[in-house]
Amino acid sequence: MSKLRNFVLAGGLVAAFGWGCSPQAPSNSATPGPRSEQLQGEELAVLTHAPEVPLPITRQHPTKVIVKLEVREKVSRLADGVDYTFWTFGGQVPGCFIRVRQGDLVEFHLANHPSSKMPHNIDLHAVTGPGGGATSSFTAPGHESTFSFKALNRGLYVYHCATAPVGMHIGNGMYGLILVEPPEGLPKVDHEFYVMQGDFYTKGPNGQAGLQPFSMQKALEEKPDYVVFNGSVGALVGDKALQAKVGETVRLYIGNGGPNLVSSFHVIGEIFDDVYPEGGDTINHNIQTTLIPAGGSAITEFKVDAPGTFILVDHSIFRAFNKGALGMLKVAGEENKELYSGKQDDRVYQPEGGAVQEMPGESKTHPGARTKEERIRQGEDVFKQVCTACHQANAEGVPNVFPPLAKSDYLNADPNRAVDAISNGLQGEITVNGAKFNQVMPKLALSDEQTANVVTYVINNFGNKGGEITPEQVAKRRK
Ligand SMILES: [Cu+2]
Predict the structure, then answer these.
(1) I need a labelling partner for 331 at 20 to 30 A (CA). Which of 148, 218, 279, 384 fits?
(2) Which DSSP state fits 377?
(3) Cis peptide before 403, with omega less than 30 degrees from 0?
(4) pLDDT above 60: residue 443
(5) Distance (Å, rounded) from C-alpha 315 to C-alpha 69?
């Protein structure tokens, strides 16, 4: 008999975990007995907040699993400076991860906190029965409902609220994942993580500060202002990034709550060795991008072979770089130059044997700036063509990923830092206006003239302190 179960029978877990999800699953040192498909005993499910996943089930028999999940309506951060009233299963978006074994009898308790304004319910896609539990679990604020279901089918399933207006309840964050593990369990891996995408519709446009109400109109038009992993912009970046070491195996349980968008889930610089498409049984191999339907899931597995930061995205790429669907997996360890060399060489490319080719008339349209004003004007073109891709058109950057050039204390301390960043690239930790960045800016192939112009443009705009950088200064610095 498992330690965990003894503990439950003594009433310990109920007191220890109550209604919340625990931040991390407790260690489970159960010794499995002989396998049986007879329902035996009962236990309280340990639920976790994303990105944690409860430990694999080592039980060799089905049991009665008691799940206690509490709905809370809660204001929290959607993006920097932007708050939102989330409706949650367990206090966070996505809802707590539930892990049961195929054949388990699940006794589900849904509580709706007295502070809620709305009734809520739950439709678990793992349920075989009308409404997936929805009608049996309709719960007014300050009430608790109970229903049971048998976990007949193995797989990774979405659960969500199905109270009218359904789209609004899901759109406010009411979704999560339940894994029904096969009796033999899943192959052992070093790390399991829980990542769930969702789209959000706010009254103000992306980035507008303050408490943003839900926009029914934008939701109807399927035009989200935010598309995020784990409930907010930046939930999986910086020191909240997923972590692993070179040589380890990683399993991602990925869900998509929608309410509207499907996700083209991709990890930049990684290939999924195995994918269980749509969370079912078949296994596909060597996958770059896997499609996750709204109200659907996928399991991906891969070994991390190279160190570095791997970016999780919805490859509908504006969602990643402009609406928030971006996370990180940081892999620590030794580089393997045979596997991935890094940049080996960079030289001037001169086609047609030597002289740099010029378009006729090009030298006339770019005569070189004679005044500071001309320099600023020409620098603006370079800025729009080159810098905005990362630092954004308003030079505000992207939190945790691209630092702001606007009012940048880092840049204003010495404008030559911009010249150096363009000439040599920039990487390693820097602090800009109090925020830490640890990313890579590639070196850019700009002439001395273009570099002088764009830096002069930047330091004379976006609230920066002014000044001028000339091509001569750039040339000298580059020597
Ligand atoms: Cu609801």
Answers:
(1) 279
(2) H
(3) no
(4) yes
(5) 33
Percent of the chain with pLDDT over 70: 89
Measured in Å, residue 174 CA sits from the centre of ligand 1 at: 6
Q: Which two tokens stand for residue 410?
A: 């880092």
Any idea which of 2-16, 268-282, 292-306 has the lowest mean pLDDT? 2-16
Q: State mean pLDDT over 136-164.
A: 96
By the CB criterion, residues less than 5 angstroms from ion ligand 1 are 120, 161, 163, 169, 174
Query: How far apart are the C-alpha atoms of 31 and 33, rounded to whole Å?
Result: 6
CA–CA distances in Å: residue 120 to residues 72, 250, 294, 319, 331: 10, 34, 20, 29, 40
Return the pLDDT at 360: 39
Q: Which residues contact 228 (CB under 8 A, 6 or more apart)?
A: 78, 197, 198, 200, 235, 323, 324, 325
pLDDT above 50 for 359: no
Q: In the prediction, which pLDDT does 130 show?
A: 87
Q: How close is the Cα of 160 to the center of ligand 1, in Å?
A: 8
Q: Which residues contact 34 (CB under 8 A, 6 or more apart)?
A: 60
Q: pLDDT: is 311 or 33 the higher one? A: 311
| CB atoms near residue 276 (< 10 Å) | 22
User: Residue 331 belongs to what H/E stretch?
Assistant: strand 326-332
* Spatial CA neighbour of 106 closest among 145, 56, 141, 146: 146
